[in-house]
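Example 3.2
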Amino acid sequence: MSDILTTAYSAALDAMARTGPRSLHPLAAMLGDDSLANGAALLSHLRGAGPEDALRQQFAHVLAGWDRVDTDAGWAAGTSRNTAERREAAIAALTLDTDTEQLFADRFPYAAASGSIVISADDWEQWRTPQRRHDRDFYWAHYSKLLRDKGWDPDAVADLDDATEEVVQRLSDPTRIKAYQSKGLVVGYVQSGKTANFTGVIAKAIDAGYRLVIVLTGTTNMLRAQTQRRLDMELLGRENLELEISAHDTKAHDYQDDPDWDADRFIRHGGRPSDAGYPDIRRLSTHAWDFKRLRQGFSALEYHRREPARRLFEPVNLFTTDARLVVAKKNSRILEDLVADLGRISDRLGEVPVLIVDDESDQASVNTTSPKKWQADSKKRTAINDLIGKLLKMMPRAQYVGYTATPYANVFIDPGDSEDIFPRDFLVALDRPSGYMGAEDFHDFDIDVPVEKRSYSESQERRHVRLLSDEPEDAELRTALDMYVLTGAVKLHRERLGHATSKTYRHHTMLVHEAMGRDTHREAATTINSMWNSGDYRGPSGLARLRRLYETDVLPVSQATAADLPTPPNFDDLRPDIGAAVSRISPPDRDAGPVIVVNSDPDLDRQQESLDFDRRSVWRILVGGNSLARGFTVEGLTVTYYRRSTAQVDTLMQMGRWFGFRPKYRDLVRLYTTEDLHSMFAAACKDEEYLRTQLRLYSRSVGGAPQITPRQVPPLIAQHRPDLRPSARNKMWNARLVERSSPGEPMEPVAFPYPAGTSGARQTLHNNRAWLPAIAAAEEIVKFKTVRVSRVNGLSATQESGTTYSARIAAVEHARFLSILSELKWSGVDTFQPELAWLRSLSADQLNRWIVLFPFQSSAGDDQEILGHGPFSIFQRAWTASKGSLRVASESRHRNAANRIAGLPTPVADPTADRLHQPGTGAVIVYPSVEKKSELDEYPYPDDRITLAFHLVTPLSTMPLSGRLIKWQTRDNSNPTAVVVNVT
């Protein structure tokens, strides 16, 4: 009965995938037998089915698809995609009984909308109709099924379907008569699954008719090989790869010794695709070999035409010819060979729909030559940028899609350079995937309690971050090494108790990243190997050391954050697993150590061959620099010892190899780094999230037209630390933002003059005198409710703390307050200027006064007069290492009152704040701050050493009437969207 039921309902769902939902049980009965007609059998089956049940998974996938599809079909009853009403319409069309409807609601919850953000040019053509998608979805259907079979949540697969569709529909129609090149950029998070996205895009593109796919990977052989294998395994599949295997030499192929090939884990298509009327995919590169000049010459790039007199891109020819795939690293010699081979058939390339996927597109691809070297009529280009330009020029039907987690260099490209790779047509920012550990998982942005007093359950930093001293100390590296042993032992313990499989913990790695130089890597490897050999991990001193670390760090963190996974409360119960972990980490060769050095040194190639995560289990300590800093996935990474600094956000974020997915060992992840580096990552994370917030805000259309196009993205990039640029200077182009509105949003500039030294002290005193009208008026003292911000289920939550704080307050007219802000000096020339321009433009109906708050500290002792007024509390605030800005100004416990004064809803009511609210009222919290109280030998603190940092919030009445939140300076009045672009 179970086989009949599964087959019948599965076939019914397959049939409805094209037609939309219909009466389910009668269709299943027709395809099976009459016993299915009343639905009782399905209800019984689903009640007993686990998450791995194939039919249950298929129901989840199909329902999620109906949630998301754009359709005007009758069953949808006019509902919008991704709404509860859409799900109700789908269930109604299935005509289920009440019990089955309730079970569906419990087992298959409503699929929320995709979080992808899309910034698109306003002239793109929609060609991906539902009919075209369904008619040709061979490779996408098989790829999405593979992901579900691998354990992906059906909603995650549906989200991937949505995100890839946002990209594919903005490519040019491959059957279009007039050639068009679309250029776009997809922005993900570091190590967040961008490869899965572009694999899905390639699958859909080949289904749609693209017949040459060129994937440009990073600059290393390791990354190129990793990408090739991923596409071979999950897209091409066994049947396409077997086309290359000789009947007389079945072992002479890429994967002859690959365990996944032997275990039949490469995707199968149920036969050769061309036998079913779909294109085969032929490789022009292999896992072992990058692209080489084609021995086959013309034949390798010759496309079969069913009707030779018709052009290749016409459907009669396009859908019956094979596709080609090239996976090439960004190396000038490799790309020169590719350009040369394609050039030999340039007269026919004009008919071939081509997709170029540029992984890590901000690396090597961007033109970084100095404008001083450009000729009057042309731009001098870097080698890779020039070769990509040649590819695009010789293939008029080529579409370019860049992928990166750090888009700064890409969006700073001159949009007026038609031969460059600026994403003029679209920018898609992918949503943060479920289960991903990113930069914010290693920082507490809205918690004011000192780190050491935070609980493990609420604090990301306490769980995962261990701060190092400014100068390297052997004891700290030893602790990180011990943590690596212990976390490996806990993994084996969980595996031994059946809470994970051997595949879950197949890899267990530690990363040591201190500098770029090869000599530094060799020295680090020698030091770590020596530490390993003297660690006494099986003896009394080593075990005593491990016991202390386990009981003070590993155990309390895991108990607080991973109660569902076994972590032995008694260290002695872990001892057998410690021995097993040490054995795995120790190499068979006693003369060698557990370290693998990964860099560009050719002498280390043989050693780096052992770093093949596909063919073997890797339990090793990796020491490296740039080769491990971008693109390449370090599988099983659990402990990181990181000391390398940089001055660019994109470089810094790409070095965060500890970001990614950590199934069943998230609690074991540790980052050892310095306080300043941790602060730099916090600023980089804020830059990243700020850009995403701005993109989401401006992606909403106004009056049917987009608020911004990709050309207007550069000014939205923030710089939270003046000493940490978005990208290298030779990649940055600047567009000028004239005015930025922030109704109801906080504004907190931090680039104040550093108050030490003659110039900084003079500017600081000037700023404080500018504040005199507010300081002198702040005579009334009131009490506000203190709130507590913590993390609940991974989300920031504001709660009442049960206490209050006192604050001096002043009411200042808007015009007077503008004069204060206009007088302030900053360490950055453009700091706060677009916001100030907006505040000046507001009418009295929108904003007429400000309530200025000067909070008092909860503990007395640091109160003093400022410029003869007060007293005021003096706060302590840290500065960045370069002294270019404060790290942070405000405290979350005070923001609740400010928000309510401005009329914004908050979770905690505050009668005092509500009394101060009036229409057109803004709020500002001022923090008189010094850097290190213990180092100032004068008290009271001098007025020229006190920085008046502040946090502003405006009422929603300041929303521009047009709905547009930003204004641009244009090149000329005839082109209002052409932003000014100047070379730095």
